[in-house]
Amino acid sequence: MEHIDECKQGDAIGARVESVTLIDVARVAGVAPMTVSRALHRPELVRSATQKKVLDAVRATGYVPNMLAGALASSKSSLVAVLLPTIASSVFADTVQALMDGLTAARYQTLLGLTGYSPQREEELVEAILGRRPDGVVLAGTDHTNATVERLTRAKIPVVEIWDLTDTPIDIVIGFSHEKLGEELARHLIKKGYRRFSVLSVDDPRALRRANSFIHELQRHDIDNVRFVIRHAPATLQVGREGASAILEGGAPEIVVCSSDTLAQGVLAQAASRGLKVPQDLAVMGFGDLSTAAHVYPALSTVRVDGAAIGACTAQALLERFSRDNQGKNYPVRLDTGFAIIDRDSA
Amino acid sequence: MEHIDECKQGDAIGARVESVTLIDVARVAGVAPMTVSRALHRPELVRSATQKKVLDAVRATGYVPNMLAGALASSKSSLVAVLLPTIASSVFADTVQALMDGLTAARYQTLLGLTGYSPQREEELVEAILGRRPDGVVLAGTDHTNATVERLTRAKIPVVEIWDLTDTPIDIVIGFSHEKLGEELARHLIKKGYRRFSVLSVDDPRALRRANSFIHELQRHDIDNVRFVIRHAPATLQVGREGASAILEGGAPEIVVCSSDTLAQGVLAQAASRGLKVPQDLAVMGFGDLSTAAHVYPALSTVRVDGAAIGACTAQALLERFSRDNQGKNYPVRLDTGFAIIDRDSA
DNA sequence: CTGTTAGCGCTTTCAT
DNA sequence: ATGAAAGCGCTAACAG
């Protein structure tokens, strides 16, 4: 309110709200601006008496440091950009939570961008976001346009690709192999005795890669007639339910392998409404996180991925890069966080 | 790899990666820096020949405008801060998606902060984030610390509180009344003939307010012995399942009213595993979005909230504020987006 | 430990 | 339609 009065006086004509600056604080504290800056960011470099004067002045003036100016002057934005396909697909929720927890604790802030599974859109977002001079970038997946890769590389900041693995990462890559997952799952289920498979997947690139390598592995074991139903992302219960209908049209397979737990839940619902017992009449396999579904639906099998671990490792990798005096050197990281097949018959 | 070579050449001694600036572009294009700036941001002010020279120079140099500098000079950051309790609770997913769609289209970027339902944490985040000089702030809910409100007010930027309603908004408020929702729901269910109620809620403040006004309204209708089970947020299927167990201990009520669809799904699962038919043996009421659950579980009733509408309205309100020559004036907005009771018996 | 001097890269505000 | 000068608010680098 004191502030508002000031405004009414000050801005006789104009629009600009003139905010309190470092210089104002310095004047009130009776020290040099630089001393205020130090008192705020490196308190160990100033006498505690000075420190107190400054903090008092900060409080008195209601000073809020302008990080735009700080970042410009220091070439350090304390900003990390995170680009995800969507926020609706909750597979990333744990990852983002863990990532942001780690970053926030280290006083980094998060710039979020949603790509909608479109590499083109990702490219535009990268370009726009790089203008903010983030200290690091996190991307979902390893499939990017050439321009995206080039821009990211030119930016010379840590880049983490997550939720996938590749032999040619831009910089750091933390995740697991969707191909390997598909193959292992196929072998696992064959070993369990299943022979009649259906696959229900949304058209998100990683889901499709899992599905394809799953089906290929089945073929290598002479299992060919796999019903493969693809629906548009995002994966919802409704999509799962409709997909199940489509699959069940041609008679029930032994098992339906879904690209996500959400889909799998939709399938469960559809199975229930048709009076099919799971897993006796119809086994259902999901993908995602245990906490979401597997504990709750005793009949549901799933492939568990530790999203929180991916986020935590990403935060740690970034912070390490930020802190280390990485003078020109690169410390590539390739972390396979793995996955676990949670199986109702064996568990 | 090209990247690394370049590094080794260029930075003979130092650490700083010197990037291409407006001045470099101007030199290459043979014009003044200011002309480059205009060509990029207000093309209508430069001759198309000049325009072309500049764009060529931009491409040739790989120039990426430094928005930190731009924002500092122009006092316009093109940044909107969004503070949410969590990203795990998917009730906000649609809202965030719609909000960001709107903002991104207008070339605004989003700074995300997670408060974990803690007003204290929100306060810290607000302080930190205000340092970025965002052009607007979006907050979930209307329950903030005094310091939060004061800082936000002092910032003199549009502030939107969403997913709730209040008579004393900071600035703009877009959502619905959780009290009214609880009351209407109570009256609705009483009218349908229900008498034995249980409530299962997580301890998120808005969920509790819905639950409390629901129960109070029941009491006003002389229904008193309501079982009220509260669990820690976030709401997961597992929490729903456990909560259902706790409730069913004391014999099944006619209906369980849950603070979210996710919880409700957990209750459905538990009911199924006990052989209870829904809604005949046990009716289940959720809360959230239709697409999540109600279309899929024919037995599930729910209160539908249009999260996407909240996000879209928020984006629109912000953009309007940004564009209008809001010279000192305020255009308060109070938008009740309402809710709809989706009922299995009536629908 | 504190102060001074120079910018960071851009845009505003005049001139031309 | 284009240019020149003067900052935006802060911090690096050095001097004391």
Describe the protein's architecture and organization:
The structure is a homodimer of 347-residue chains. Helices cover 45% and strands 16% of the residues of chain A. Chain A is of the alpha/beta class. Chain A has three domains: 2-65, Orthogonal Bundle (434 Repressor (Amino-terminal Domain)); 77-176 and 308-337, Rossmann fold; 178-304, Response regulator (Rossmann fold). In chain A, strands 2-1-3-4-5-11 form a six-stranded parallel beta sheet, with helices on both faces. A six-stranded mixed beta sheet of chain A has the order 7-6-8-9-10-12, sandwiched between helices. In chain A, α2 (22-29) packs across α4 (48-61) and α7 packs parallel to α8. The longest helix of chain A is centred in the C-terminal third of the chain and has 17 residues, at 307-323. The radius of gyration of chain A is 26 Å and the shape is elongated. The relative contact order of chain A is 0.11. At the A-B interface, α5, α6, β2, α7 and α8 of A face α1, α5, α6, β2 and α7 of B. The structure holds a DNA duplex (16 and 16 nucleotides).
Biggest sheet architecture of chain A: 6 strands, parallel
CATH topology of the largest domain in chain A: Rossmann fold
- Report the strand count of chain A: 12
Using only C-alpha atoms, the radius of gyration of chain A works out to: 26 Å
CATH level 1 name of the largest domain in chain A: Alpha Beta
Secondary structure: helix percent of chain A: 40-55%
Q: What is the number of helices of chain A? A: 13
CATH H level, superfamily name of the largest domain in chain A: Response regulator
Distance between the termini of chain A: 64 Å
